[in-house]
Design a protein that fits this description.
Keywords: Oxidoreductase. Pfam families: Aldedh (PF00171). By secondary structure, the protein is of the alpha/beta class. About 35% of the residues lie in helices and about 20% in strands. It contains 15 helices and 25 strands.
Length: about 525
């Protein structure tokens, strides 16, 4: 395993500072010391990325598609070594890591297909109308083009699928942007293995080395330097609100501000409607408890708020929640800081006025295991107290009890922007809560019916990005093929000669992609 930074394909360890990751199960520092990148090394990574971009941005779709597929093959070729390392550094079980690897490789291959299909560039052609009165129309053609080197901050909670070769990297590389990954301090070894796999793919595909680099750091300075480098053109981030906003601030303070696509956290409200509670209280409680405790609750889509209306069967629902949470098993959290902040943030909510625990395991453990808990509060108290709106990252959820439909709506309107919002109800429930559903749709990026938010499908129609503060820019998704749109910008060509135009905009449609020509969608 390479413990140096990997800069444009070459190991580089000029610094004297080192950083180690931890085994969260044994709570032990791991022996490999990873060398932190110096300012000079960060600059070199970005300059190499910029040089590589000049070539890589013009790579044809089949070349980029092949590159993404070779990355997937190289990751798979790491076999059990990668799985074991990711388990060691995250405490996550084998099944979860194997699944994440499948998702990582699957999304690389999905982007390859997207490139081959080609219409993602949104080619639009308005041909000249020289005879138009009172003024002629000139020829104007527009498409999306790659924006330049991208900095990627990897996620602690997805060591593979949202990390070194995860959605941000895959979408940026697909867009024609070189990537510099800032490794997450929790999984440096996993990062090193995947970074090496990507670098091998760069060589195999004959691409310039600067298309991919990976740097390590022992504090915020490394990431800050990367974001502030003038040749970085966009940032992908998944993590805390505090970290995300610090990066947004750094990006805005540059001479040339750049977009930061930060996914920062969400409480993912679930509304369980009256008829469903009356008919299926136990089943729904079971479904919710499993979703809250999945992956020790360390998902950005973890259901942190459950909203119910005072109705027949509510007592059965509350009792079932208690029993279901009692039967859950505490699992090891990703690292000590996440474990400690879970316990502190959970307690902070439970200690608020009008909050009553439904189930809260009191016995402390000396391990970093997140103890599942559920509490309840009135709608009035929730609306008034912003502390209760905060994400508790871990297996905790707060049930908000509303007196009536009006309070359901008040709660919805009081909520901040969310990645997801779910409605669990019968057909009649849904018909009689249209207003609530409309209000909820204004607050979320994904509206789910009769399901839980955990488990985000990687597909073309996915939108994983809600209004602020769940993300820094709710217009864009970090999951699914539309994630590519974060790393491109539209360019219009006015009256441009054919030989200057990119192939996607040329007469005769040489790429045979879907385009909009004079207002009509066509492959002609
Ligand atoms: P984090 O503290 O935000 O860190 C994420 C990445 O950003 C790391 O690489 C970190 O590296 C870097 N970073 C953090 N603050 C920075 C700053 N001021 N300037 C530059 N870089 C900075 O997130 P985390 O370590 O993954 O987890 C901490 C908390 O984040 C969790 O307890 C949870 O509340 C939340 N979280 C949310 C999600 C989600 O999906 N929304 C996912 C994971 C975690 P350095 O520390 O080395 O600078």
């Amino acid at each position: 395993m390479i413990t140096d930074n990997l800069i444009a394909g070459d190991p580089s360890g000029k610094g004297s500072e080192v950083v180690n990751s931890y085994d969260p199960v044994k709570r032990e520092r791991l022996p490999e010391s990873f060398i932190c990148a110096t300012e000079e090394e960060i600059n070199k990574a970005v300059e190499e990325a910029h040089e590589a971009w000049k070539i890589y941005k013009n790579s044809k779709a089949p070349e980029k598609a092949e590159f993404l597929r070779v990355i997937a093959e190289e990751i798979e070729a790491l076999g059990d070594l990668l799985v074991q390392r990711a388990m060691l550094e995250s405490g996550l079980p084998e099944g979860r890591i194997v699944g994440e690897r499948g998702r990582t490789c699957g999304q690389l291959r999905l982007f390859a297909e997207l490139l081959e299909e080609g219409s993602w560039v949104e080619a639009i052609i308005d041909e000249a109308i020289p005879e138009r009165q009172p003024l002629p129309r000139t020829d104007i053609r527009k498409m999306l083009r790659s924006s330049g080197p991208v900095a990627v901050f990897t996620a602690s909670n997805f060591p593979l699928a949202f990390s070194t070769a995860g959605g941000d990297t895959a979408s940026a590389l697909a867009a024609g942007c070189p990537v510099i990954v800032k490794a997450h301090p929790s999984h440096l070894g996993t990062n090193a293995l995947v970074a090496e796999a990507i670098s091998k793919a760069v060589v195999k595909c004959g691409l310039p080395g600067g298309v991919f680099s990976s740097i390590q750091g022992s504090g915020h300075e490394t990431g800050q330097r990367l974001v502030q480098h003038p040749l970085i053109k966009a940032v992908g981030f998944t993590g805390s609100y505090k970290g995300g906003m610090a990066i947004v601030k750094a990006a805005n303070e540059r001479n040339e501000p750049i977009p930061v696509y930060a996914e920062m956290g969400s409480t993912n409200p679930i509304f369980v409607l009256p008829e469903k509670i009356k008919n299926e209280a136990k089943t729904v409680a079971g479904q919710l408890a499993v979703s809250v405790n999945l992956g020790a609750g360390q998902f950005c889509t973890n259901p942190g708020l459950i909203i119910v209306e005072n109705c027949e069967g509510l007592d059965v629902f509350m009792e079932s929640m208690k029993q279901e949470f009692q039967s859950l098993e505490a699992a090891t959290m990703l690292n000590e800081a996440i474990y400690k902040s879970y316990e502190a943030n959970k307690q902070d909510i439970i200690d608020q006025n009008h909050v009553n625990p439904i189930y809260n395991e009191e016995n402390e453990n000396t391990e970093w295991k997140g103890r599942p808990a559920v509490a309840k509060v009135t709608a009035k108290a929730f609306v008034k107290n912003p502390v209760l709106h905060k994400e508790v990252f871990g297996p905790f959820t707060l049930v908000i009890v509303c007196n009536d439909k009006a309070e359901l709506n008040e709660v919805t309107l009081a909520m901040e922007g969310q990645l997801t919002g779910s409605v669990i109800g019968t057909e009649k429930d849904i018909e009689t809560h249209e207003n609530l559903i409309e209000n909820l749709s204004q607050k979320v990026g994904r509206l789910i019916f009769n399901g839980v938010p955990t488990g985000v499908e990687v597909c073309h129609a996915m939108h994983h990005g809600g209004p602020f503060p769940s993300t820094s820019n709710g217009k864009y998704t970090s999951v699914g093929t539309d994630a590519i749109k974060r790393f491109v910008r539209p360019v219009s060509y006015q009256n441009a000669p054919q030989n200057i135009l990119p192939d996607a905009l040329k007469d005769g449609n040489p790429l045979k992609i879907w385009r909009k020509v004079n207002g009509a969608i066509t492959k002609d």
